[in-house]
Write a structure and sequence with these properties.
The chain has four helices and six strands, in the order H-E-E-H-E-H-E-E-E-H. With 164 residues, it is of the alpha/beta class. Strands 1, 2, 3, 4, 5 and 6 form a six-stranded mixed β-sheet that branches. It is globular, with a radius of gyration of 14 Å.
């Protein structure tokens, strides 16, 4: 079973010289229906902080927070939510949609959706945050960004900030 699907924007990046990257510290917004625990978020962000990535505030939102209701993350945030209608339940555990400027490569928002029951499993959130930070799937056995969860691991080669 695959981890996630690369959004069309990820496929387009191969034709640009600049890889996507954040120019600010993104806040993490957790929608009220998400079952991702605070401990899981802490572990996932610590993984990326050890690789020189940084984040702003982590906030769990109320049910009436409009971006979670509409599914549209605000500028400067990585939003974590439940799967939307177009989520591919048959082959994905999570998916991340990342928005960035194609001329500069600046990432300005991202939305992570994780399949119910997989929100707190090892590596799933770390992998999806990797996509939100601009990293692509790979086929390296044991690597965090391997596209298949059962072939992935915690190998972090190439994930340190400024090594994209």
């Amino acid at each position: 079973m695959g981890y996630c699907v690369g959004v069309a924007l990820l496929f387009v990046t191969n034709i640009f010289a600049t890889n996507p990257t954040w120019n600010i510290k993104p806040d993490i917004v957790v929608c009220s229906d998400s079952r991702v625990t605070n401990l899981r978020i802490d572990k996932a962000t610590q993984f990326w902080k050890m690789l020189n990535h940084d984040f702003g505030n982590v906030t769990r939102m109320s049910r009436d927070y409009l971006p979670c209701v509409t599914g549209e993350p605000p500028y400067g945030t990585i939003m974590i939510d439940i799967p939307s209608q177009d989520f591919n339940f048959g082959s994905h555990l999570g998916t991340t949609k990342t928005w960035w400027r194609t001329d500069t490569g600046e990432v300005f928002k991202a939305k992570i959706e994780i399949k119910v029951g997989w929100e707190n499993k090892p590596r799933v959130l770390e992998h999806e945050i990797g996509h939100a930070l601009g990293y692509k799937d790979n086929n390296i056995t044991g690597h965090l960004m391997n596209h298949a969860w059962n072939r992935g691991g915690y190998n972090k080669k190439g994930l340190k900030k400024n090594e994209i």
